[in-house]
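Changelog note: in this version the structure field was regenerated for every chain. One regenerated record is shown below for reference.
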Amino acid sequence: MAEREEFDVGGVHFPLEDQATGTSLLAVCDPALSALIAFLAFRINAHLAAALTGAVAAGNPPIGMNIRKTFSIDAITLIAKAEQTSFPFFFVARKRVRFNDRTANWRQGTGVLTWGYVLPAMTLEQAEKFLHVLQAVTSIVEHSLYLGFDPNYNGGERMLDSGIVSARLTDARFEPYRIGDLTDTHFHAVVGEIELVEQVMPTEAGMQTLTKTSVKVTDESTQPGNPADVINAEV
């Protein structure tokens, strides 16, 4: 291993190790995205299922009280027929990443993710009853990202445990869409963007050992012209 560079990004240690047959590449290559999808789906189900119980039981559109499918890709653009999935489905997918210099030897990437909560096609009457749930999903996603924690999720597991520094909702849009060649059938969703900042380890050459520092603070604000006590600190 000495002849190969090792580094860590977003909870992933490179070079990647051998994996057992059937191992999810999402969990191996992108644990931050995997954790984000699982956490948000859990929160949406926990806060929304009770309100949907009565509506689903009343024979409204064929959807579940909980999210039926989750995807780590932009599923709206890849589903050709409605029969390929179940509703509602939820996805979070990577869209792009911007890099900036934290220090001369420390690069930081800020990812932009696209997300969506998707409902099936509906009649006018069904849409009037159901589409308001999209606003509730938006509120749940925004608040969940702000908290980044739920004591009932995986025993209190935090998003930070998967290499995530911060995540915030930056955009949400409510719009109809079409799947594949179903040009006369409109589906409905809330889609938007999430800003994701992940842990990135600086290069070893850029890390210097801090042995000592001195701090001197002078405050003259209380009595102009009469310096306050000088504070010296040594670390």
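Spot check on this record: The chain has four helices and nine strands. The longest helix spans residues 31-57.
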